[in-house]
Design a protein that fits this description.
- The structure holds two protein chains of two kinds.
- Chain A has 15 helices and twelve strands.
- Chain A is an alpha/beta fold.
- Chain A folds into two domains: 167 residues, Nitrogenase molybdenum iron protein domain (Rossmann fold); 147 residues, 3-Layer(aba) Sandwich (Rossmann fold).
- Chain A has a five-stranded parallel β-sheet, with helices on both faces.
- The longest helix of chain A is centred in the N-terminal third of the chain and has 24 residues.
- The termini of chain A are far apart.
- Chain B is an all-alpha fold.
- In chain B, strands 1-2 form a two-stranded antiparallel sheet.
- In chain B, helix 4 packs across helix 13, helix 4 runs antiparallel to helix 14 and helix 5 packs parallel to helix 7.
- The longest helix of chain B has 35 residues.
- Chain B starts with a helix and ends with a helix.
- The chains are: A alpha/beta, B mainly alpha.
- At the A-B interface, strand 10 of A face helix 4 and helix 8 of B.
Chain lengths: 331, 347
């Protein structure tokens, strides 16, 4: 990320002010005293992250989240004091209690690369969790570390590793253990119930977002579809090793006919089971209606509330379970 | 035709073909367009047998591939044809009006107005479908061009240079405002990525029909202005001496090109190079007579657009490249080659 001279000067000013504040704070308090009080926030431990070994509070109370760490932290029961803004679509897919948690946090910026560092400093966080592109992190790393211990995860961190890292740093490992158990049980139940279908059926997951050009859709081989393929074992298409995900390719509607080579099609629906708004043009097209899978009830709407935390994955598996239950029996 | 006689003495115009050769060329251009229309229906990102295409067009079969032809390829081909005609003619008009061979409709702020209006519609009003924001694009193009016309008019009328300056200025301001809106609204930016590239994918014919009456009016206005524009190529004073009403001719031309370019942008987004390059090619073939340039542009521009769209469908199968990107790739080298030809660059 490049910064303008004005922004660089602003960042330098913030850093200088923060340094002064931290020095004054250090002069005014005695670390030993803090330990003597038994205050758990004064005790520390170390965690491993993509920015090294970080000393974090043993029980952080004022956590700020930047980038993709917000929703996984909230999903684990965390209550961030400051967050970067999530899309309205992502927020709408959260359970009500999590929506309330998100709403009570201070919005620090509309996007992760524009975090208001001054505002973040005034929140006095004791831990900052970050997942943004490496280059964006490098631009603000020093300023963040002046504000509070900062735990960074690169974008290549797999969702389970991210959950582990967030739970460890944010001291919400108990919630993670529960979610992991529930997730494992749910996967096992689906595999047991639909073992025959899973073994002998070709699936394809397709989707369409607001960002797609009119008249185009894509094959979703990342996101929730990864959970269905890699955890549950559904036979779903996947990009060749080293190639870009299939989801990066926009396909024109005339290629809807190509989906006829798959036995079951899954597509995105909202929490109420209706096709998501961007996907409506697909289900309204004549080519979609003419597909054998659609005509025979083997096009399944599945709700994907997110794919970077166990809670969201569990809700996805619930929806997949319900959808698979509607598959007509083989004749 | 005095104007033509004078121009024919000028550099690079000594080999202007006669009417019969021009007509023959026009027939060839028409045949080329007809072939490309057929190819556009036949070729796509999926392979569909010619017999299926035939069935889809002339029988009421209801297979998946037949639907794909009727619902996607045919509308896409018609959209390419209509948008191409509009871009070609508007390009010829703006070049004749400004006497600038490097002018294209965007120079009067048409694209900037349309893009800004679509950004407002998508980013602030939440409009997401092409049927919804096409009217914003059309209105944006019209309003901005009227603003340019008002700002570019002096007491002596509207000078082409002042018009262009006003267009460039307003375009720059609106471009900045559009980018600011998109940067503060990433979802709008995402939603507009493909529109900004210029595409004819997924535009149903419902998008084309409402714009057609405007195009018809613009077509009549353009050909009505073509004679006076020939005279104005000699300079305002000589044109006025021949009885040309300068203000009226410019107003008609601006109105026509705004309807054409605004409508085309509303349907397909900003597609560059077609309006810039095709009138060049036409002028190279037929010489400086605007009536012939207009006629050739009307046939050659959709041909270029359809070729580009067909290429965009097959070079990255199964994915596609938006036609606006392909026209830039095809258009830029061709334009450079043409610009290096002495006789192609004069007006």
């Amino acid at each position: 990320m490049t910064t303008t001279p004005l922004r660089r000067r602003g960042a330098a000013l913030v850093a200088a002010l923060l340094s002064t504040t931290l020095v004054l704070t250090a002069c005014g308090s005695d670390g030993d005293d803090a330990d003597d009080t038994g205050d758990p926030t004064a005790q520390t431990r170390t965690v491993q992250a993509d920015n090294g070994t970080i000393e974090v509070p043993a029980d952080p109370q004022r956590v700020a989240t930047i980038g993709n760490t917000t929703l996984p932290f909230i999903d684990l029961g965390g209550e961030p004091i400051g967050v970067t803004e999530e899309s309205a679509t992502n927020v709408a897919r959260l359970p009500e209690d999590q929506q309330a948690t998100y709403a009570s946090a201070k919005i620090l910026a509309t996007s992760a690369d524009e975090v208001d560092l001054e505002e973040l400093a005034t929140l006095k966080p004791d831990l900052i969790l970050v997942q943004i592109p490496d280059a964006e992190f490098e631009a603000i790393e020093k300023q963040l570390e002046l504000i509070a211990p900062t735990v960074f995860f690169g974008l290549d961190a797999e969702w389970k590793a991210l959950a582990d890292g967030i739970a460890d740093a944010g001291n919400v490992a108990d919630a993670l253990s529960q979610q992991k158990k529930e997730f494992g049980d749910k996967v096992a139940k689906i595999q047991e119930t639909y073992g025959e279908v899973i073994d002998g059926t070709s699936f394809v997951d397709i989707s369409r977002g607001d960002f797609n050009d009119p008249g185009t859709f894509y094959i979703a081989d990342i996101g929730c579809s990864e959970i269905a393929r890699d955890e549950v074992g559904l036979d779903l298409p996947e990009a060749a090793e080293g190639a870009d995900p299939l989801a990066y390719e926009s396909l024109s509607f005339e290629q809807i006919g190509e989906l006829s080579k798959y036995e079951v099609i899954t597509y995105p629906v909202d929490a109420e089971g209706q096709p998501t708004e961007p996907f409506v043009p697909v289900v309204e097209s004549n080519t979609w209606k003419a597909l054998d899978a659609v005509k025979s009830g083997r096009a399944l709407g599945v709700f994907c509330p997110g794919n970077n935390s166990y809670g969201a994955a569990i809700r996805y598996l619930d929806s997949l379970d319900s959808a698979l239950a509607t598959l007509p029996a083989e004749e | 035709m005095t104007a033509l006689a004078l121009r024919q003495d000028g550099p690079g115009t000594s080999a202007v073909p006669g009417p019969r050769r021009r007509l023959l060329g026009l027939a060839v251009a028409l045949a080329l367009l007809a072939v490309l229309l057929v190819l556009s229906v036949m070729i796509g990102s999926t392979s569909i047998a010619p017999s299926v295409v035939w069935d889809a067009l002339f029988h009421s079969s209801s297979g998946i591939d037949e639907f794909a032809i009727r619902d996607y390829r045919l509308p896409r081909t018609i959209v390419g044809l209509v948008v191409g005609v509009a871009l070609g003619l508007s390009g010829a008009l703006i070049q004749a009006l400004t006497r600038n061979p490097l002018a294209d409709p965007g120079i009067l702020g048409v694209h900037a107005g349309a893009s800004f209006a679509v950004t407002v519609a998508v980013g602030l009003l939440g409009v997401r479908d092409v049927q919804g924001y096409m009217w914003f694009a059309f209105a944006g193009a019209l309003i901005v061009t009227l603003m340019v016309l008002a700002l570019g008019s002096t007491r002596q009328g509207s000078s082409p240079v002042v018009l262009v300056l006003a267009g460039v200025c307003i375009g720059a301001v609106l471009g900045g405002a559009r980018e600011a809106l998109q940067l503060t609204n990433p979802e709008a930016f995402d939603a507009m990525r493909y529109w900004n590239a210029g595409s004819v994918v997924g535009r149903p014919l419902d998008v084309v029909w409402p714009i057609l009456p405007f195009f018809a009016v613009a077509l009549v206005l353009a050909f009505a202005a073509s004679g006076p524009l020939n005279a104005m190529a000699l300079g305002d004073e000589l044109a006025a001496a021949q009885g040309v009403q300068l203000v009226r001719t410019r107003a008609l031309s601006v109105l026509a090109l705004t309807l054409l370019a605004g409508g085309a942008t509303a349907i397909a987004g900003p597609i560059g190079f077609v309006g810039l390059m095709v009138p060049h090619v036409a002028r190279w073939i037929v010489g400086p007579d605007q009536r012939w340039i207009f006629a050739y542009s009307i046939l050659l521009a959709p041909s270029l657009l359809l070729v580009s769209d067909i290429l965009g469908r097959i070079v990255m199968r199964p994915s596609e490249i938006p036609v606006g990107i392909v026209t830039a790739f095809v258009g830029a080298p061709v334009l450079i080659a043409l610009a290096r030809r002495k006789k192609a660059s004069g007006l």
